[in-house]
Design brief:
This protein is an alpha+beta fold. 41% of the residues lie in helices and 29% in strands. It has a four-stranded antiparallel sheet, covered by helices on one side. Belongs to the archaeal Rpo11/eukaryotic RPB11/RPC19 RNA polymerase subunit family.
């Protein structure tokens, strides 16, 4: 199932992205991974109310495009998940 996102705001150094129908787990992991990027200044999940969709706010420095930072962080998370799945499959066949 595809994740639905909506770009709420985009400038040279800031992006606000709404994750429709998503819980906090992925957005929290993505925000944490974004903070590993030295050109990311702020990466935080916002949610007005518990029953509303979460929003990710990202600000960057040194000219780093915020959507590129988000894309790179998502790829790194995907890579970690793929490695975990590979290791679990290895355990399952042992």
């Amino acid at each position: 199932m595809a994740m639905k996102i909506k770009l709420l705001e985009l400038t040279d150094d800031k992006a606000r992205i709404l994750f429709e129908g998503e819980g906090n787990t992925y957005i929290n992991a993505l925000a944490a991974e974004l903070l590993n990027d030295p050109d990311v200044d702020v990466a935080q999940r916002r949610q007005a109310f518990k029953f509303t969709d979460p929003e990710l706010v990202v600000t960057t420095i040194n000219g780093r495009p915020p959507l590129l930072a988000v894309t790179d962080a998502a790829k790194r998370l995907s890579s970690v998940a793929e490695e975990l799945l590979r290791q679990v499959k290895t355990l399952d066949t042992a």
